[in-house]
Protein: FAD-dependent oxidoreductase
Organism: Sinosporangium siamense
Amino acid sequence: MSVRVPLSDTFVNGDVSFWYRAEGIPRPGAPLDGDTEADVAIVGAGYTGLWTAYYLAKARPDLRVVVLEREFAGYGASGRNGGWLTGDLAGTPERFARTHGPLAARTLQRAMFDSIDEVVAVAGAEGIDADIVKGGVMQVATNAAQDARLRALLAHDRAWGWTKDDLRLLTAAERESRIRVAGAVNAVWSPHCARIQPAKLVRGLLRAVRGLGVKVCERTPVTELAARKAVTPRGTVTARYVIRATEGFTADLKQYHRAWLPMNSSMIVTEPLPSSVWEAIGWNGDELLGDLAHYYMYAQRTADDRIAFGGRGKPYLYGSRVDDRGQTHNWTISALWELLTGMFPAVADHRVDHAWSGVLGVPRDWCSTVHVDHASGIGWAGGYTGHGVTTANLAGRTLRDLILGEDTELTALPWVGRRVRGWEPEPLRYLGVHTMYRLYRMADARENAGLRRTSALARIADTITGR
Ligand SMILES: Cc1cc2nc3c(=O)[nH]c(=O)nc-3n(C[C@H](O)[C@H](O)[C@H](O)COP(=O)(O)OP(=O)(O)OC[C@H]3O[C@@H](n4cnc5c(N)ncnc54)[C@H](O)[C@@H]3O)c2cc1C
C-alpha cells in the first residue's frame, strides 16, 4: 500500500506531534536538584501523573508531591493523542466482572461517563482552554462485516447497562446529517465523548498543578523505581509513596519490562480545509468519528478546521523499544491518507501538514489497572490500551484515595488492584504483535471484498494477543 501523499510546504514528520505546532515544543523546566524527601513521588508527567498530583494537592495541600519527568510534561501520549475524551472502558466489562461481579463492571462504566464531565469541569474551573466540545461520537460501518460488528457492539453494550441515551443506531438520514462518510452503511452515536486539544490539556494541567505547589521536575529520567524511592541521575527522591505513571514507556524500567507492551498509534493532520470541503462532508465539528475496522481509525475536526486522523501505527519495535520523537513510517502516512480520502473524497485535493506517532501501554489482558501497595509504597495506573484520556482522570482520583488510605466508591471499582501476568519474552512478543497486525490487515481486506461477517483471521489475531 503506497499511494502518493500530497504534503504541505510546512509538512513535519514527528517533532512530538502537531498539537505543539502553534505554541512550539515546550522548553523543559528545571530538573531535580539533588536528593529530595517527599510524601509522594510520581514518575511521568502525562495525564496520569498530573491528575494524580492535582487531586492530591487539592485534597491535602500540606503534602509534598514531586513529579519526575524524563523529557517535558506532555511529551508522551498525553501530548500526541487523537483528542477523544471518551467514555469507553479501557478493558472489557466481562473481565472486570470476573473478579468483582457484573454490578461493579457497570459501576466502572458509569464512572467513566462521569469522568468526562469531571475533566470538562476542572478545565473550566482552572481556566484550561483545551478546545473542549462535548458533542459525542459517531462510529460508522463501511461494509457488511463491520455492520454486523456494530450491531453486536450495540447488543453487547445494552447487556452491560448502556441505555438508548448512551448509545443508539442512527437512521441513514441522521447519519448523513452529521458526517457524510463515503461508503457508510450504518452508524451508532453516543453522547459520551468530547473533543479536546491534547497538548493544551496536558500543559494546562501542568500549570494548574504547579499553581498548587507541586514540584514538577523535567529532564529528570527515573532509572530505578523501588520501595519508597525513585532514583535519577540528578538525585534520589525518597517518599512514602512512589507512583509509576509511565504508560507506553514502562518497558524502559527494568523490573517492569514485560508489564505493558508499548504499542504504536499514528496520526496525520490535514491543512485547514476550506468551507467547500466541509459543505461536502457536513461535519460541524462537534462529534468525533471512528469506525469498526480491525485496522481502525479515529478522527476529529480540529478547532482550526483540519481533520486529525489516526489509526494503528508503525509496527511494534523488537524488545519493546519505544520511539524517538514521534516520527512515523511513510507507509503509515500513506495508509492513513488512503483511509481518510476513501472516507472523504473531497479531502483528496488537499495536503497533509503533519504526521506523528506515539506509544500506548497494553497489558496482557487488555484491561487497565490502578494499584497502591502500602507495604512498599509503590503504586501505578495505566495499561489504558489507547483509552487513557478519560481513564487517567479516574486514575488520578482513585490514586488520591488509595494514597490517603480512604475507602471510597472509587477504591471499590473493579480495576483497582488487578493482577495481570506479563507479556511473553522475545521473540514471541514481536512475532505475536506483528502477526496480529498482518491478520487484521488481511481480515479488513476480506471484509472490504464482501465477507458478510467478521473474518476468522481477526478472531485468530484476538486469540493470539489475548484481546
Ligand atoms: C497517537 C495516539 C492517539 C491516541 N488517541 C487517544 C484518544 O483519542 N483517546 C484516548 O482516550 N486515548 C488515546 N490515546 C492514549 C492516551 O493518549 C494515553 O492512554 C494517555 O495519554 C496516557 O497518559 P499517561 O500519562 O498515562 O502516559 P503518557 O502521556 O505517555 O505519559 C508518560 C510520561 O512518562 C514519562 N516517562 C516515561 N518513562 C520515564 C522515566 N523512566 N522517568 C521519568 N519520566 C518518564 C514520559 O516522558 C511521559 O511524559 C492515544 C495514544 C496515542 C499514542
